[in-house]
Amino acid sequence: xxxxxxxxxxxxxxxxxxxxxxxxxxxxxxxxxxxxxxxxxxxxxxxxxxxxxxxxxxxxxxxxxxxxxxxxxxxxxxxxxxxxxxxxxxxxxxxxxxxxxxxxxxxxxxxxxxxxxxxxxxxxxxxxxxxxxxxxxxxxxxxxxxxxxxxxxxxxxxxxxxxxxxxxxxxxxxxxxxxxxxxxxxxxxxxxxxxxxxxxxxxxxxxxxxxxxxxxxxxxxxxxxxxxxxxxxxxxxxxxxxxxxxxxxxxxxxxxxxxxxxxxxxxxxxxxxxxxxxxxxxxxxxxxxxxxxxxxxxxxxxxxxxxxxxxxxxxxxxxxxxxxxxxxxxxxxxxxxxxxxxxxxxxxxxxxxxxxxxxxxxxxxxxxxxxxxxxxxxxxxxxxxxxxxxxxxxxxx
Length: 397
Prior knowledge:
The chain is mainly α. It has helices at residues 2-15, 19-35, 40-47, 64-90, 96-121, 139-148, 155-179, 186-204, 211-225, 233-241, 252-276, 283-288, 292-318, 330-340, 344-354, 358-396, and strands at 50-54, 59-63. A two-stranded antiparallel ribbon has the order 1-2. A hairpin with a 4-residue loop joins strand 1 (50-54) and strand 2. The protein is globular, with a radius of gyration of 21 Å. The termini are far apart. 43% of the residues are buried.
């Protein structure tokens, strides 16, 4: 009987919206422990092991770390692309009235952090490349923390945050594709483009078998990887071609999204966190937080995100472009803006694209870790304490 109860608790936990964020946090802690233990060098050696094969025509032999960051993360971006398309077709981004608030809030939450970072780093040609780092929101962590509050926050606030984070991801994808790509190989781009057009034709023909999209999608990944554009963009391109509908019946897109959600949340993202947050702490790192790079990231995420989200939300409501979700107050928006400052996995991903040297990568990772922790704790506290204040006011009245 006890085993059955434990199994039910375990099953309930993995079905909860906060489980992915909690599991991700556990992997971050494990990664930090490994990096600061005697296993650090052995772990790095494992990540540098090359897997795959090379032939005269096909080049697919890369270190484990690259397979994770370029391969597994392409699946993550495939899921993000599916979520974006679904929201545009039938969700919170399907009409102007629904989309205006999260879209404008997301734009504010991207522009202000980038400007803050640029203010500190525009004079340094090396660190200036990291302007995209504080723009990102980690949707798993942000929604995970918000879900811990349960009924303490309005349900509309959760939808607002989810839509905002999805728009944020879309902007991050465009930034990666445009600004964080190396020298382009137009031959490989042409091959990828031809296959992408083929998938669009499959969609127009009404083909619903996912194999017709996923198998060519793997080849698109190969061509994109060799084209100079970051390989993860292939996941988004394939997602845009997957058929969907506005009906109640599950479409191929929704079936694939449901299939990928748990593997991405409990395998791919934790693995990414495990191999990319292995920061070996040094005393100099604390001083690095006060450097232009550290300040740009910390203030961009911790201050820039909530300021940008709050101001654009306020303007859109005052100008009657949009309205706040039901039962949502401006204090809720402030708390949500702080949760948007949890950059973490996406910010680390952009940091790896921004800097080639380990020193700047580690300095950026440490700043992201500090900023995301502060933003997450403050966001949670504001939303939790404001709920208690509201309850007390209601009881006194």
